[in-house]
Amino acid sequence: MDKRCSKHERRELPRRKVALTLGVTCIFLLLASTGLRYLLLQRCSGEIGQDMKAPEDKNASLAEVEDHLILLTTTAWNEDNDTFQGKWYCHGKSCYHFSKEEKTWERSMVSCQDLQSSLLKIDTKEEQVLIQSKIKYNHWIGLSRVQESGYHWKWLDGSPVSQQLSFRQSFSHVKCGHMRPSTIYTADCSKLFRYICEKEFSGPDY
Question: 98-102 — which CB contacts under 8 Å span 24+ positions?
Fold first, then answer.
């Protein structure tokens, strides 16, 4: 009887070892699978969060990036009681349109006329500072060199340039003015720049 029991126990011992090994292996695989799922979820969440915080990293076009910047600019202007209507930024009595396309000075002037406006005229130093804070490129403005008892720089309405403005004149015979982020400067009228149109603010239904 004891010999039979001993043989039976010997047979059961390997089976228990195999079962125990399989059980430990299953637990290990389950833990590993859970860990991999957790790491995958964390990685996906991080990528989604990064995409939401930095839309410019999605190989977006230049126009999309600029539209994003325009929205940020608009918010800042609204905080100063300025308004944003369509493609026009309004501040005080004036509304401004900053083009994204580049044209010559004369074609820029015509484009502004098509928008029932004119190339920008800067009246005060405060207005110059305000407009320059909104641009990152060279923009044509309504300033040109007119021959009138000698050459003089004047706005499209015939008024002279205020001495309060930051205006650097080149020594060459260029005849058109443009605005840079730092100053008003001169350039050959045939160059391709962006442009700024201006018209009078006429209320909420503008």
Answer: 98/134, 98/135, 98/139, 98/194, 98/196, 99/139, 99/194, 99/195, 99/196, 99/197, 100/63, 100/66, 100/194, 101/194, 102/192, 102/193, 102/194
Residue with tokens 């205006």: 167
Residue 6 lies in a domain: yes
CATH number, domain with residue 104: 3.10.100.10
* Cβ contact 131:96 at 8 Å: yes
Residue 123 lies in a domain: yes
Please give the model's pTM, rounded to 2 decimal places: 0.58
pLDDT in tens, 62-78: 433 343 333 333 333 44
Residue 186 lies inside a defined structural domain of this protein: yes
